[in-house]
Amino acid sequence: MDEALSISYINTILSIFKNILKFAKQYGYLTTSIPIFQLPKQRKTPSDIFSLSEWACLNNYLLTQNDNFSFGIFLCMYTGIRIGELCGLRWEDFDSKSGQLMIKRTVYRIKNMAYTSDNSLPKTIVSIASPKTPSSIREMPLPAFLCRKMQQYSSDPLHYILTVTTKCMEPRIVQKKYKNILKKCEIRYLNFHSLRHSFASIGISKGFNCKTLSEILGHSSVNITLNTYVHSSIEQRRQCMELLVMK
């Protein structure tokens, strides 16, 4: 293969293979014991989040813009949706009466299984599908100010929010345009997923309970929210330590 497989991809392959062996064992196709697989471990790296000043700067810049892409980034700031979910949003997913946004599709690039070195087909293709997990399919209530902005940009129900056409924008284009916005704002570059990290951390600091935040983010458990996306600032830690003072 030309490219090394990621650890998460290897783990997925091994998990599927293990389930196949279990099925074979259950129905008598496999007479030997199932081997024990040692799954490669992923190294956890700290997730970067925007500072409050950076968050405010990005927020203020986006409010001065009138294009749908800038609005899409603004939407991510206040919903924590993933980049593929943003790309897959159509106006039919927004219910102006209830003020709710339905997350039910995602856009991502996958390997083109028809590609070979002998043909001219692309190595990867864009796929539009349902989110990978049932918990990612969710209804999200929007704050009133965001509903008003949604109504300002509203278009044909079958149009994608970012493109205002029936053709979606793919994630790598979103990444490029998003990077240019940060550059214009003179904000350090953090990857697109940092918008989601920051949303979660700010939500906790504003009083979101973890269960509610987990459902908004589309996680299958509260632990994922706590361990992966929620970060306390040094100021929050200081405030907690001050609670120990005897009065």
Automatic annotation (TrEMBL):
Keyword Ligase: no
Highest taxon of source: Bacteria
GO molecular function terms attached to this record: DNA binding
Name of a matching Pfam family: Phage_integrase
GO biological process terms, semicolon-separated: DNA integration; DNA recombination
Transmembrane segments: none
Tyr recombinase domain residues: 45-242
Keyword line: DNA recombination, DNA-binding
CDD domains reported in the protein's UniProt record: INT_ICEBs1_C_like
PANTHER family on file: INTEGRASE_RECOMBINASE PROTEIN MJ0367-RELATED (PTHR30349:SF41), PHAGE INTEGRASE-RELATED (PTHR30349)
Similarity remark: Belongs to the 'phage' integrase family.
Name the record gives this protein: Site-specific integrase
The species this protein was found in: Parablautia muri
